[in-house]
Structures are given as structure tokens and as C-alpha cells.
């Protein structure tokens, strides 16, 4: 890997900004084609080595729910990347297996999978008794035309129809950390938060909370609402993983919620899969301590060690992902102090890689000019992580690496959807929960591609 990447020259060539923006990630390998979902891959060497036992549960003190520590994130159901059609038969099998082994928390949104996630999740869950699972969904009124009171209520009511239920166990205000203006427009000035409180009193919502991406200003504001008794938050969903614990604000969020005894739901435990598909030397680091465990299991055990976490969401696209996570949480073996120190060492190894922290959430899509934004960023990440970036012309492998990169890029991203078509309209910027400067990253990648092409002429 060191032979193929001279990191000093790489950073010089691609710009130091990439190292700053990408400091929170290592990367996942890409598969599929344009528009593929980044999936949480497991290390095959870690699979099948531990029998699946009894699920670990946490009690929600707010309402008494006995919730599985493993929650199912329904953002990445298997689907055709071109049409978006979900493979319902496979979804049904995944849900059946999850419920059979004790998973009882399913998280979706009307914004996931081109609006089809709620319907698919509802079809799969309807085949089981209603008391066997908890449904979480969100009021995802991001679009300008959805922010009015009437449109937001219509979106809320549609969730019941799609999920085929008459009550929601966990209802979230979706991703409120953008700005105070956006929060007030989506939920306060239109009276929607008061409407949802009223729905909770009617029994149509059992628990009311929010999911959070962003800086601390909006978070502190809504915590003040809670402290002053203006609104009561039954739970909060935050992004947390062992890399963000070092570099991000999740430590602050966790501690503030714990002080208030508010149950915590975790999203992005694997940073969109990047903490499960790691560079070889990081995998070797993990194998030295626990040879039979997958890289993903370390991330999930880290989160399960924190007592105020109610459930950890994982977007398990394939059965092997589900089975690996079941082995981790059936039952949970919390990390020891020694394990925690070892994991911190691994995090610092990961932070050396100048990757772009794209989680393939697709909130930036569709691009007004047709670019495959997540596809471009994830393809770039793939080659950095594998140590196969064409970096130094003096390298004996340079010509082969340059050719492989260009061929793979053109096969993965259609010509009209590539980085050089970005015009910096900035429409994507406000939608990215990871706060990536997407136009800037696309420009860097586009320039890098053009340089590779010139060098081959």
C-alpha cells in the first residue's frame, strides 16, 4: 500500500482540503454501478465464527419499551440502482430473519429510497403481529413545497398509509441541524411541532423526538426547549461512531442527552459502511486482538458499551450483514478498557487517509444538472482506500494504475454524470448532513481526471 501511495505528494496534488474534509473517514469498496448504495460490507474472515445467541435489549424508561440493541435502518433496502425498484421478496426475508432473532426496531422515512422505503417496510412488517416490532419514521419535509402546514400534515398522514399502521411508535423531526431558520420554518412557524404534540396526546404517536445532523446551535436551542418544559423530547437520534467520537461533536451530543436522561438512537455506526471495509493494515490491527471478529463488530460493540444508547441502526442490505450484526449483539460483549484503547489506536490509523466523508445518503440528489454526486465521491474513495490511486509518474505501476482508474471511472459513472459537468450551482450544499463542500470536491476530482487523461496522451 505504501508503495502505491506517496501521501505527501498525493495531498499536494489533490489539495490539502481533501485531507481536512475527509479526516473522518476510511472508505468502502464500490460495487454495482452508477447510483449504487454504499453497503455495510463485512470481513468474510469474521463471518460464521460465533453462534447467534439471545438478543441484547435495552429498556426505554420513557415508555417501558424493551428495544433490541440492534435496530434495522431501512434506508438501504436492496433495490435496482437504475430504476429504484425494491426487491420486496428479499426485504421480506431480511425482516423475517431479523424478527426471528429478536430485532424489533425498524427505522424508515418518506425520504428514503425515492420515497419507497416506507411502503416496502410496511409490506414486510405487516406480515408479523403488530406487537412484535416498533416502527420509527420521520416528518421529512425538506422540500420547499413540503414545509407548509397543509403539505407537512399530508406527508405525515401518508406515512400511516404506506406503513399500514394506525400509530407510530417513534416519530422524528428529520435532520433538524441545518439552521435555526430552517428548523423554525419546517416545524415552528407552521405549527407542525404543536400538531405532532397533539397527535401524541391522541395516541397516534407514542414517542416524539428528532434526528440531528449539524452544528450545536440548533441542538442547544431544542435542548433549552426541553429544559424549560416547552417541549419534551422522548428520544433523540444522533450520528455516532468511534471515529466521530474523536473528530466530531457526537461526544458532546451524547453527554448532553445523557445528562437529561434522554434515550439515544444511533445512526451511521459504520459511517455509511466505511468502518467495515478498511485498509489492510487497519484490518490487521483488529485481527491481532480478535482474529475471528469482523471490523464492523468493533464499531457495534463500541456503541453498545455506552449505557444510554437505546438502539443502534444498521442499514443491512444483505443477509450476511444482518447475520454478522446478530452475532455481535446476540448477546453484546461490551468493550473493555483495553479494547477501547485499542479501538482508539485504530481510529487514528483510519484518520490518516484523505477520503471524502460521503455516506451515500443521496440527500444531495437529484443534481439539477444530472451528476451522480455520491457515485463520483465513492469511486474516488474506493481507490484511495485500496491504495491504488495513480499518484506518482515515477512509480513503476503508475501507467497501469492510471489506466485502471480511468477505465473504472468511465464504467461506473456515465459520461454526462461525471465531475467535470458540475457548474457550482451549489444546490447540493444545504442538503449534505456531513457538510461536505461538494462542488469543491467535484472540481478537484474533475481536475484530477483531466490530468490523468493528459498524461496518457
Q: Specify the oligomeric state.
A: single chain
Total helix count?
A: 17
Structural class: alpha/beta
Percent helix, as a range, is 40-55%
Side by side, the strands of the main sheet go: 3-4-5-6-7-8-9-10
How far from one another are the termini? 27 Å
What do you see in this structure?
42% of the residues lie in helices and 11% in strands. It is α/β, with parallel strands linked by helices and 457 residues long. The radius of gyration is 22 Å and the shape is globular. It starts with 6 loop residues before the first helix and ends with a helix.
In short:
The protein has 17 helices and 10 strands. By secondary structure, the chain is an alpha/beta fold.
Write the layout of secondary structure elements.
Blueprint: H1 7-14, H2 16-21, E1 57-59, E2 66-68, E3 70-73, H3 88-100, E4 105-107, H4 117-126, E5 134-139, H5 149-163, E6 168-173, H6 180-188, H7 192-202, E7 205-212, H8 216-227, E8 235-239, H9 244-247, H10 250-259, E9 264-267, H11 280-289, H12 295-304, E10 309-314, H13 319-329, H14 337-350, H15 373-386, H16 398-412, H17 438-455
Parallel strand pairs: 3-4, 3-10, 4-5, 5-6, 6-7, 7-8, 8-9, 9-10
Antiparallel strand pairs: 1-2
Helix pairs in contact: 3-4, 4-5, 11-14, 12-13, 15-16, 15-17
How would you describe this structure in keywords?
457 residues; alpha/beta; eight-stranded parallel barrel; two-stranded antiparallel sheet; 17 helices
